[in-house]
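Exercise 7.
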Amino acid sequence: MGSTGRTYGQVVGLTGPLLPVVSFLGRLPTATIQFGSVLLVARTSGSLGAAGLTGGALAVGQVACGPLVGRLADRHGQRTVVLAFSLANAVAVAGLVAGALAGLPTPLLTLLGAAAGATVPLIGPLGRARIVALAHRADAPDTTIGAALSFESTLDEISFVLGPALVGVAAVVAHPAYAMAGAAVLVAVCGTGFALHPTARVLRATPAGHKVLPVRGRSRMPHSVHALLAALALQGAMFGACQAGITALTENLGQSDQAGLVYAAMGVMSAVAGFSMAAVPGRIALTTRWRTATAAAFVLSLPLLWTDSLAGLYLVVTVLGVAYAPHLITVFGLTERAVPPSRLAEAMAFATSAIVGGQALAVAVTGRLAESYGPVAAFAAASTSAALACAIACAARPASYTGRTTETTRHARVPGKRPGTRA
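Solution. The predicted structure, written as tokens, is:
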């Protein structure tokens, strides 16, 4: 743990102690509003159908507009883009809360949900892009960059465990509207803090008239990134299928209130595994880690097919969490190497949209499968998704971007700053 602690100390040294706190609190609303919108509309309208449509529209809005947020951040700098989207998201979430409490019809609630999803400031993906740029500017070794991605993924995992838990507590104690209103305030305050933090200068807007280096002709992203995005979409599908299966099994066992806790146990184990990734020796290639993580996810998911008790579900799902964060961290690392720095925020946004899209689609499909054929159908879909992700990992040959040195020097360094100094 000594060397791991020192490595993470180097990561915090790149950002300063304030940025991780602001970044974590700024991304917490993203995890809150997805689950919170469903509970809010279900409580105020009494219709699970309206709640599902609103939550689905929110996910679609985020998937569709997430890459646009990343592209704008690459072109105009993170400061302006994050500030604008954080304030817009706060207004959109507040509008959704007001609309639900006012009893607006389902079509209008769906539009408000889509607006809340489309304005998500994507602090998680942009935080990854920022910390990678800081590491490159400081000429940090690959181990530090890997630890930085592990650190960011751990923050994501904790936020996606804590966010729904806070919504659940608010729903039991008072009303889901309180959690949603809190998310609106948090994204406005901490999103603004993330946007105005001095490290935002490390990713500057592309100068007017500057021609960005081409990426394999006219394609927006290198072709090698497509396999990585497909793998992330399949991991998202695995998330969604597990969520549907866990919900269905706990309901069958008469313990529906345990579903959130079971899912949280998986998230906590995933966060622990992600934090531990900094201890993996640098000599183990990213492609080897990718294949190992997907194979582990497939093998560890198989016991779900024979799980029929609450204790067994806790055990199997917790162990399965070991494979999640390592896969995310590794694929984000491969993505960082595959794209030019001038498109890094966009690539990270695409990656996040792939996960969210895969999860949303899987929840919709496997939820119906679980209703018709039982939880084993949803768990079978989760294992199938893991098997396909493993097949992609074994077949793909992700390449590194060849112009990285030139563009890192051109875009990632702040004028007047020497490598190795902090923003």
